[in-house]
Amino acid sequence: MSAFIILVVEDDPDDVFFLQRAFAKLGKADDLRVVRDGDEAIAYLSGAEPFADRALNPPPSLILLDLKLPRKSGFEVLEWCRRKAGLSRIPVIVLTSSQSQADVARAYDLGANSYLVKPIDAVAQAEMVKTICVFWAGLNQSSRSVEL
User: Residue 4: exposed, middle, or buried by beta-carbon count in 10 A (0-12, 13-18, 19+)?
Assistant: First the structure.
């Protein structure tokens, strides 16, 4: 069985650091791939350079997507993913600091599978990451028909 790869789309270096640390505590650090903006996310997902080597940059099983990104927003990335046949079934968890009901509604309207507000402390973040791993990588039945 192939690894459960999680693509983290996040521009804040501190948020990336704390996510990587939380996943590492669960022994899942090697399952993460990180891109820093919307354009990089689309390049990774489409297998474009510099992500063309699928041995190093395999298609993700799950996407953690911030909304406030440079270049293309998380909304634009989500909308793009949902229009692509080979990507439309990959679960996308919006992970953002926005608590705006308009953002929540828009994310779900565009096809987000979950909307989580970033925890403000390390304990809450570790618990969130553990829950993500248990549910999405363990319990959830996924469609592994992703072909990029």
Answer: middle
Q: How many CA atoms lie within 13 A of 132 on its CB side?
A: 32
**Cα–Cα dist 116/104, whole Å:** 9
Please give the domain boundaries of the chain with CATH numbers for all domains. Answer: 6-137 (3.40.50.2300)
Element holding 131 (H helix, E strand): helix 122-132
CA distances from 55 to 33, 115, 140 (A): 12, 30, 25
pLDDT digits (tens, 9 = 90+) for 44-88: 999 999 999 999 999 999 999 999 999 999 999 999 999 998 898
Which helix (H) or strand (E) covers residue 126, if one does? helix 122-132
Residue 107: exposure state from Cβ atoms within 10 A (0-12, 13-18, ≥19): buried
Q: Is 45 helix (H, G, I), strand (E, B) or coil?
A: helix
Global confidence as pTM: 0.90
Q: How many CB atoms lie within 10 A of CB 136?
A: 19
